Amino acid sequence: MSGETWQSEISNLAGGLGREGAISPEQAEMLQRLAEEIGGLTRSRTSRDDAIVRTAVPLTPEERAELERLVAARFGRGRRIVFQVDPELLGGVWLRVGGRIVDGSLRGRLEALRRQMGAT
């Protein structure tokens, strides 16, 4: 199981147990924070040559396959592609390949707009 899947499963489990009253709200929150921390540690184990794809929600297998095809066509085959979920992106896709970052996320676009508005 990938770190992303593990984090999502534990977070969903904690939320469900908390809603059902099987564990206290404090315990559910602690379990969700633990899942986030472990997910962060898993994400940090990527190499500089990996392609990192971040999205706000998990991608379907078809979406993953299409992104793998696009990354291979643009940056070359043979790279490991690491998919990560980052709800703070709000939408869109953030991609890092080597030292190059392509930020097509909604959060990135909003930050760029904020900077533009502040510069005028």
Shape: globular
- Number-wise, the strands total 4
Task: Let me know the average pLDDT.
Answer: 81
Task: Tell me the span between the first and last alpha carbons.
Answer: 48 Å
Instruction: Output the strand order for the largest sheet.
Output: 2-1-3-4
Largest pleated sheet? 4 strands, mixed
Task: Provide the gyration radius in Å.
Answer: 17 Å
Secondary-structure element order, N to C? HHEHEEEH
Helix content: 55-70%
**Low-pLDDT sequence parts:** none
Give the number of helices: 4
Number of domains: 2
Strand portion, in percent?
A: 15-25%
Structural class: alpha+beta
Keywords:
120 residues; 4 strands; alpha+beta; globular
Describe this structure in words.
It is a single chain. This protein has four helices and four strands. The protein has helices at 3-20, 25-43, 61-75, 106-119; strands at 51-55, 81-85, 92-97, 100-105. The chain has a four-stranded mixed β-sheet.
